Amino acid sequence: MATANPTMFQASDLNHHNERVQKRYRLLFGLMTLLLITPVMLILGTLVVKGGGAISWEFLFSAPTNGMRTGGVFPALLGTIWLVTVALLLSVPIGIFAAIYLSEYAGDNWFTRTINLAIINLAGVPSIVHALFGLGAFVLFFKFGTSILAASLTLAVMTMPVVIVATRESLQAVPQAFREACWNMGATRWQTIRRVVLPNSITGILTGVILEVSRTAGETAPIMFTGAVFFTPFLPQSVFDQTMALSLHLFVTATQVPGIAEEVPFAVALVLIGLVLTMNSVSIAFRMWLRGKKKW
Amino acid sequence: MVDSAILTPTTGATAPAVDAAPNKLEVRDLTIRYGSTVALHGVNLSIREHEIFGIIGPANAGKTSFLKAVNRMDEFTTGMRVDGEIRFNARDTRRLNNVYALRSRIGVVFPLPVGLPMTVYDNVALSPRLRGIKEKAELDVIVQRCLTRAALWDEVKDRLDALGSLLSGGQQQRLTIARALSQEPDLLMLDEFSIAVDPVTTMRIEDVLKELRKEVTIILVTNLVQQARRLADRTAFFLGGECVEIGVTEDLFTGEVKDQRTRDYVEGRFG
After folding, report:
1. B124 with B142: CB under 8 angstroms?
2. Is residue A276, in this structure, part of any structural domain at all?
3. Of A243, B70, B71, B260, which residue is most buried, by most CB within 10 angstroms?
4. Complex ipTM value
5. What is the mean pLDDT of chain B?
6. Range from A169-178, B153-162, B178-187, B252-261 carrying the lowest mean pLDDT
């Protein structure tokens, strides 16, 4: 018969030590998290406090008047939606298809490794360099002029690496065993991609797209030289028009207009963040719907 | 189906006498390497139509590599190189262009179950759908038949919409078997199928295999020598990348062996 050992569950010195160390690390990680969310809360808080009062139906849906000092942001809001939409239409299909090729078809050789390296480097190029490239390539060489098309192409080139890397990562997160099981049944590569790989990586791919939306909407430098203007009384009618954009409008109202009410730039920033969050929440909702469906 | 014609053995009066041999699989001088490591060396064997062919042997004997070579899995296994000849339905599989038709006629089940992350139904309907079957009624019949044969129908019939990858390990293994059966294969290759399955279910599947033998040829790789004894008509003993012996299964167990190592292995004295 086993007898209860009275010291068996008493904490030893080692137990105490481990517990202390564990608490210290938990504190460290917790503090870092706090540090991380502090600037986010400060930014959002400042914007709401200082700019929230200026937000109104009229602010959102009317054009700026009196040299930006009064009126609203509608042309800039609409312009940013144009720029982001066209940029996404260009970069998302190309980025996803290229990532599928690199991950599912291309072998692991020096050529694909070089391409992968180039993509990572492309992601590291400063946005002002992309801006000058866009000016040279799309505005001047292809003669698109300063237009939504030229600006969106520049944005697309700049953000495509994000889509490619995110897509590739989520494709590679699908276990190889799933592919092999499918190939072993006589499925072609494409059948395997369509029926097994894509359904299980689509949520990760959408995450990449969400990141891209945020970055595209906020960029200022690449569109300054290629399609966005200080002020235009006209709303864009096609991709060959110039347009105002929220990010540039924020820069303008914050630094270039003397005698403007202090709350205006804050309100513009709030609209920009609101737009990004709205666009993101659509894709997040779509992603959640897909997840719920796949129970994955 | 044009594809299947490539693989169907020529029969009848016009066929040459060689092709009339009832061999499902003929292997000549098969050598498999992973980089510079030799996994299987100089294997020669023939597997007859409608037999259960057992392959026994300890780990690292080259049993799984053998199955992979038959299905041309070396094409997506890094570093794997296959030399020699593997004739399936009298066609040299190594030189076959239509690898998809080859793989769709060979069902494989590996030791680690792979429930694809789709519903139980879709798991089993996948292969028929790849073949172009779209009609729900037809798919329903195939799904039920394959799941029943894999001894899984009773457990999942009320939740065919559940995710296949969320079934228990043993259920996923039977799902994998059902999926292999849904290919309506010519040749079924089972690699340690019972490793994640309880003994009672194992027995049920073994009964199904005995039934299936009327329709398909089965290669059964197993660590359980008694399982080979229960099921296999003939058995090969692989050891360290070499095919030591091939014989009628009962002979291997009653001591009618050519090689002492075979006797040692089946009697559990190996080491």
Report:
1. yes
2. yes
3. A243
4. 0.84
5. 86
6. B252-261
Indicate the range of A48-57, B5-14, B207-216 predicted with least confidence.
B5-14
| CATH number (domain holding residue A245) | 1.10.3720.10
Q: Note whether A194 contacts B: Cβ–Cβ < 8 A.
A: no
- pLDDT, one tens digit per residue, over A160-207 is 998 999 999 999 999 999 999 999 999 999 999 999 999 889 888 988
Nearest to B71 among A182, A184, A195 (CB): A184
Those residues with Cβ within 8 angstroms of residue B31's Cβ, 6 or more apart along the chain or in another chain: B38, B40, B41, B42, B43, B82, B83, B84
pTM: 0.81
Q: Do the Cβ atoms of B77 and B52 come closer than 8 Å?
A: no
Q: How many A/B residue pairs have CB atoms within 8 Å?
A: 59
Expressed as residue numbers, the domain containing A125 is 58-291
SS3 B217: strand
Q: Is A68 an 8 Å CB contact of chain B?
A: no
> With 50 as the cut, is the pLDDT of residue B11 above it?
no
Q: Which residues of A25-61 are buried (b: 16+ CB within 10 A; e: fewer)?
A: eeeeeeeeeeeeeeeeeeeeeebeebbeebbeeebee
Please enumerate in sequence order all residues whose Cβ is within 8 A of that of A264, keeping only pairs 6 or more positions apart, or say none: A51, A54, A68, A69, A253
The CATH architecture to which B2-105+186-266 belongs is 3-Layer(aba) Sandwich (3.40)
- In this predicted structure, what is the pLDDT of residue B2? 44
Give how far A120 is from chain B: nearest CA, Å: 25
- What confidence score (pLDDT) does residue B88 get? 92
Domain tally, chain A: 1
Asked whether residue A280 is assigned to any structural domain, the reply reads: yes
Q: Which residues of chain B form CATH 3.40.50.300?
A: 2-105+186-266
Distance in Å from the first CA to the final CA of chain B: 51
Judge whether A69 and A257 are in contact, CB under 8 Å: yes
Alpha-carbon span A57 to A78, nearest angstrom? 15
Q: What pLDDT digit, counting tens, does each position of A69-90 carry?
A: 778 888 889 999 999 999 999 9
Among chain A residues, the shortest Cα distance to B67 is held by A184
What is residue B9's predicted lDDT score, i.e. its pLDDT?
46
